[in-house]
Design goal:
- The chain has 313 residues and is α/β, with parallel strands linked by helices.
- The chain has a single domain, classed as Aldolase class I (TIM Barrel), CATH 3.20.20.
- The chain is built from 9 helices and 16 strands.
- The longest helix has 16 residues.
- The protein binds ligand RRO.
């Protein structure tokens, strides 16, 4: 039987498998991160961290139903020092992506400078798209001049490979503008997409919202958001410099979903809601399903179909 090669490169970073966790899901604590390091995933992404530990928003703050999930976690994390110290102690061959999400530009500079000193961090995923911060008035990633200013400052000192976790955009022009900005900087990758902000789920039995923070509004993930993830990946693939890789995230629960993300232009994929539902065993299942799918299609590597989505003529 033909061997299927699921290894990929995200710019210069080599992954033995294109499947990894999405930041935020089962990647906050010592135990969760150890489980991810021991799993079949091709890389590990940490929970977005801040300078100081945070408890996050009040519970209940996560809810899932058959088509997706809603969360308003509020950036609970153990603080950057925990993640750096934890990783420093671990021997692993897997690339490690430290996700950071400072509450201000200055905090992001501080976090990036600090992480730059740690050899175990392969790359940084700068999360500019958390939809659930009580402190934040607007999402920085919907404010193009703020993003531009932030990146200009970051690339004055940053030495690590760096990518940006983006929110979903809903207009072609927004993606064009964002790509124009990103193309000016030595960015290694973008992750598309974070959860869809400001969603709402209603429980008809109790006639109530299903999560407590922010009167029930939260970020939507899971299979229901896949079309938005695919559209954002496709558009960024069209508009971004070819050396900026795309990590697809949003609505993956089967091997076929991974194929769709990569066909649209993703180089690797992240699993969020489905990891939460299934635990770390999801990686082995998805690898098997994806390999099976590729074998049926007669593809033996990711590069043989990546980005090759066809249009009607
Ligand atoms: O912690 C959260 O509330 C959260 C974050 Br930082 C994020 O980036 N995306 C999300 O859906 N939740």
């Amino acid at each position: 039987m033909k061997q299927i090669d699921l290894s990929v490169s995200i710019n210069k970073i080599k992954l033995s498998s294109c499947i990894m966790n999405a930041s935020g899901v089962l990647c906050s604590t010592d135990k969760e991160l150890s489980n991810l390091l021991d799993s079949f995933s091709g890389a590990v992404v940490t929970k977005s961290c801040t300078r100081k530990p945070r408890k996050g928003n009040f519970e209940p703050r996560y809810f899932e139903w058959n088509m997706g999930s809603i969360n308003s976690m509020g950036l609970p994390n153990l603080g950057i020092d925990f993640y750096l110290n934890f990783l420093e102690k671990k021997e692993t061959k897997k690339p490690i992506f430290l996700s950071i999400s400072g509450l201000s530009a200055e905090e992001n500079y501080f976090l990036i400078k600090k992480a730059n000193h740690y050899s175990k961090i392969t790359a940084l995923e700068l999360n500019l798209s958390c939809p659930n911060l009580i402190e934040e008035e607007d999402l920085i990633s919907y404010n193009f001049s703020r993003i531009s200013y932030l990146l200009e400052n970051i690339f004055k000192f940053n030495k690590k490979p760096l990518g940006i976790k983006l929110p979903p955009y809903f207009e072609d022009l927004s993606i064009q503008k964002m790509a124009l900005i990103l193309n000016q900087f030595p960015i290694d990758f973008v992750t598309c997409i974070n959860s869809l902000p400001n969603g709402m789920v209603v429980d008809t039995k109790t006639e109530s919202v299903v999560i407590q923070p922010k009167k029930g509004f939260g970020g939507i993930g899971g299979s229901i958001i896949k079309p938005f993830a695919l559209a954002n990946i496709r558009k960024f693939y069209t508009y971004l410099r070819k050396d900026i890789s795309i990590i697809g995230c949003g609505g993956i629960s089967t091997g076929k979903d991974i194929f769709e993300h990569i066909l649209c232009g993703a180089s690797a994929v992240q699993i969020g809601t489905q990891l939460m539902k299934e635990g770390v065993f999801v990686f082995e299942r998805l690898e098997k399903e994806f390999s099976f799918f590729l074998r049926k299609k007669n593809y033996s590597s990711i590069d043989s179909f990546k980005g090759n989505l066809k249009n009607f003529q």
